[in-house]
């Protein structure tokens, strides 16, 4: 390894330890400050939190994944299972956030190890860890009772084992990656297609590199089959207990309340949030008020109806859907995440009213006037979070586009990092939110760390050249 910050192994590890301590300190300080300022543990909850906690209560009391005796098929068991110690302790928020802080620190260490594997540079790895320590989205979602911290940990663990496999082709690393990746799907089904993506990249790399030996091809298929087997087990469970043959009903739910709602919102000239409220998002009474015949249906039939109805709405107006969803990846990639921070600290009222007014005035001359009236917290918050995000993205591009190509000896590793991060940015087509970028941020930090190390080395060479020129 080259360009070490220090001459010994222990110096490098000491710097990593400092970065991990900073990671923990920031993730403890933010929820502590939120509680002190609001004196309300409900600030750590989101509209989705209850849908995770209720199955966790079922697991704690009866060891069955059910809500009020009904098998749960909307949520997958990953995060509810993680919440069992918090639910059992009677201190849900305290224990859950403490466990998520531990996971976030482990994720930060995973960022360090991945950067070492890909770039073989101690300085890049240390800087990657430092960047992740202060990364706003990971700090935010460590403070909320949401699945993001656990999901990011599973993704980073899977990538770590997968990249190690690319170095030594050991079965243990390959199987470790498959298990961790399958676990991530149980936490958030958005990763459902990742086993196929990684297997395809691996096969393509072997064919291009003319290294498609029987062992390598067999290992790729075993990786894919292990993932499929572990994931299919839950689909079989859903079919057996509820007659629902899919991995999770969240796809049908999103098809109705997000994809279909985005089309209806455009057609009815409403905001997406207003359309979703009218359709009964987060409120079964509103939904059943519009579909009274479904009160007697089992939930699997209700979710199947949602998926079919959402698909019909999209199929009826595909161009409207594409226009509505086109901004999703841009919002996911470039959204600074300020609104979620304002909710955490109970500053949401003024910011949301400003944001709503700006949205409605976006196409008119009133937009400038609305922007002028923005609360100071909106200006400074967007300046800070948006500036940090821009810096991370520019540093990542610096790593990828640098003439020296620090990653040229590990092209496949960088390709995997880029494609997995792009997957999380692009997949939520029907809607966009900074939250969806959170699992990509550890990868972006890995790339940004190399970009920062490259930029620092360039500045050092430039300064040395200038000193040499003026000393003559």
UniProtKB/TrEMBL annotation:
Membrane topology according to the record: Multi-pass membrane protein
Keyword field contains Membrane: yes
Residue stretches making up the Glycosyltransferase RgtA/B/C/D-like domain: 90-232
PANTHER family: MANNOSYLTRANSFERASE YKCB-RELATED, MEMBRANE PROTEIN
Protein name: Glycosyltransferase family 39 protein
One Pfam assignment: PMT_2
Any GO CC annotation of this UniProt entry: plasma membrane
Entry superkingdom: Bacteria
Any one GO molecular-function label of the UniProt entry: pentosyltransferase activity
Membrane-crossing residue ranges in chain numbering: 94-119, 139-163, 190-208, 220-236, 377-399, 411-429, 441-459
InterPro entries assigned: LipidA_mod_glycosyltrf_83 (IPR050297), RgtA/B/C-like (IPR038731)
GO biological process entries: lipopolysaccharide biosynthetic process
Alphabetical keyword list: Cell membrane, Glycosyltransferase, Membrane, Transferase, Transmembrane, Transmembrane helix
Entry's localization field: Cell membrane
Coiled coil: none
């Amino acid at each position: 390894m080259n360009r070490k910050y220090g001459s010994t192994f222990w110096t490098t590890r000491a710097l990593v330890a400092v970065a991990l301590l900073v990671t923990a300190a920031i993730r403890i300080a933010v929820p502590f400050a939120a509680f002190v300022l609001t004196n309300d543990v409900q600030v750590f909850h989101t509209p989705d939190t209850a849908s995770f906690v209720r199955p966790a209560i079922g697991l704690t009391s009866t060891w069955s994944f059910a809500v009020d005796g009904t098998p749960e098929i909307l949520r997958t068991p990953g995060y509810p299972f993680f919440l069992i110690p918090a639910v059992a302790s009677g201190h849900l928020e305290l224990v859950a956030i403490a466990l998520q802080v531990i996971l976030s620190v482990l994720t930060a260490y995973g960022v360090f190890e991945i950067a070492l594997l890909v770039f073989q540079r101690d300085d890049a790895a240390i800087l990657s860890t430092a960047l992740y320590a202060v990364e706003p989205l990971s700090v935010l979602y460590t403070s909320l009772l949401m699945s993001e911290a656990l999901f990011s940990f599973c993704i980073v663990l899977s990538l770590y084992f997968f990249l190690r496999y690319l170095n030594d082709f050991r079965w243990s690393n390959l199987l470790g990656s498959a298990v961790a990746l399958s676990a991530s799907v149980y936490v958030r089904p958005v990763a459902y297609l990742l086993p196929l993506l990684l297997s395809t990249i691996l096969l393509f790399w072997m064919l291009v590199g003319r290294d498609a030996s029987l062992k390598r091809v067999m290992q790729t298929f075993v990786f894919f089959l292990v993932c499929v087997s572990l994931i299919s087990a839950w689909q079989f469970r859903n079919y057996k207990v509820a007659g629902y043959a899919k991995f999770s009903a969240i796809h049908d739910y999103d098809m109705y309340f997000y994809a279909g709602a985005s089309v209806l919102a455009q057609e009815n000239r409403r905001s997406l949030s207003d359309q979703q409220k009218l359709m009964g998002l987060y409120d079964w009474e509103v939904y059943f008020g519009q579909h009274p015949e479904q009160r007697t249906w089992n939930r699997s039939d209700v979710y199947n109806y949602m998926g079919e109805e959402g698909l019909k709405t999209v199929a009826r107006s595909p161009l409207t859907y594409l226009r509505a969803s086109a901004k999703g990846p841009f919002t996911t990639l470039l959204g600074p995440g300020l609104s979620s921070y304002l909710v955490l600290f109970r500053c949401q009222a003024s910011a949301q009213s400003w944001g709503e007014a700006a949205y409605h005035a976006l196409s008119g001359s009133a937009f400038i006037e609305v922007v002028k009236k923005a609360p100071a917290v909106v200006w400074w918050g967007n300046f800070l979070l948006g500036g940090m995000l821009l810096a991370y993205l520019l540093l990542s591009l610096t790593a990828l586009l640098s003439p020296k190509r620090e990653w040229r000896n590990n092209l496949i590793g960088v390709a995997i990092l880029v494609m997995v991060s792009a997957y999380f940015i692009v997949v939520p087509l029907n809607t966009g939110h900074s939250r969806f970028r959170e699992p990509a941020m550890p990868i972006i930090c890995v790339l940004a760390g190399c970009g920062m190390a490259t930029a620092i080395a360039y500045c050092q060479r430039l300064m040395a050249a200038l000193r040499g020129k003026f000393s003559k």
